[in-house]
Write a structure and sequence with these properties.
There is one protein chain. With 268 residues, the protein is mainly alpha-helical. It has a single domain, classed as Glycerol uptake facilitator protein (Up-down Bundle). It has 10 helices and 2 strands, in the order ββαααααααααα. The chain has a two-stranded antiparallel ribbon. A hairpin with a 4-residue loop joins β1 (4-6) and β2 (11-13). The longest helix has 31 residues, at 31-61. The radius of gyration is 23 Å and the shape is globular. InterPro entries: Aquaporin-like, Aquaporin_transptr, MIP, MIP_CS. This is Aquaporin-8-like isoform X1. It is found in: Membrane. Belongs to the MIP/aquaporin (TC 1.A.8) family. Keywords: Membrane, Transmembrane, Transmembrane helix, Transport.
């Protein structure tokens, strides 16, 4: 029913009166709006990455036995599971510049100006988390593993490290898009799937590149330790992997209403 103007005797539609319905005024950018939509999610990303990197670096520095890779993978998986679940309703639980890149492309992050702010918050949180890990452990343990910095394995070339990081990150980003973002596939188990993707990635490529899949996770320890050898591997690989999975999602795997190529026939 059309909106109209109430007269004394009857309801007169606007089409008959010729009046134009005024458009609603835009929502004012109040302090509460800025806090809820900008400050709050940025702090969620900062704190989430801070805790994740603290646990990640600590798990690497305190495990030097034959089961170190298992312990490190589980520590990363469980912590990311908890942090994504804790921040999902506040910031979306990205906690990773590669994930933020994917979510920006599929328009899962609005307004788009938040994307660079998210990345800055993640990098700052990673630095703080790595610094806290450094302060919490003896120098001997910290120095023994170069401060938990990601490094290429023995005889591994940078190109191989980039490929390993790209493939593992592609699995992670696909999990994010399919179980935490997509309308039809979204699940309450999304945070668990994301955590398991990271844990599995560490098991798979830990001996090749260290298993980062997250530029922020590599950046924080590198800053605190001041170790930058082949650091670009941990940006190029995850970014390529993120772009690949985003492309596959948008072209083939997304729900019909989110596919980039339009479908003109109704789909159940």
């Amino acid at each position: 029913m059309s909106k109209g103007v109430k007269g004394t005797k009857r309801y007169i539609p606007l089409e008959e009166t010729g009046e134009v319905c005024p458009s609603p005024e835009p929502e004012p950018r109040t302090a509460a709006y800025v806090f809820i939509h900008f400050i709050r999610p940025l702090f969620a990303e900062l704190f989430g990455v801070m805790f994740f990197v603290f646990v990640g670096v600590s798990s690497v520095c305190r495990n030097k036995t034959g089961t170190a890779r298992i312990a490190t993978g589980l520590a990363h998986a469980f912590t990311l599971f908890v942090m994504v679940a804790a921040t999902a309703k506040v910031s979306g639980g990205h906690l990773n510049p590669a994930v933020t890149l994917a979510m920006t492309i599929v328009r899962g992050l609005q307004p788009i100006v938040l994307a660079p702010l998210y990345v800055l918050a993640q990098l700052l949180g990673a630095i703080i988390g790595a610094a806290l890990a450094r302060a919490a452990m003896p120098s001997t343990s910290y120095d023994a593993v170069t401060g938990g910095v990601h490094m290429l394995g023995h005889d591994v070339e940078p190109g191989q490290g980039i490929l390993a990081e790209a493939v593992a990150t592609s699995i992670l980003v696909l999990a994010v898009l399919m179980v935490a973002f997509d309308d039809r596939n979204k699940s309450v188990l999304g945070p668990l799937a994301i955590g398991l993707a990271v844990g599995g990635g560490i098991f798979a490529i830990g001996d090749i590149s260290g298993g980062s899949m997250n530029p922020a996770r590599s950046f924080g320890p590198a800053v605190v330790r001041n170790y930058w050898k082949y650091h670009y591997v941990y940006w190029v690989g995850p970014i390529l992997g993120s772009l690949f999975s985003t492309l596959m999602y948008g072209l083939f795997l997304a729900s019909p209403n989110r596919l980039w190529l339009p479908i003109y026939e109704p789909v159940d």
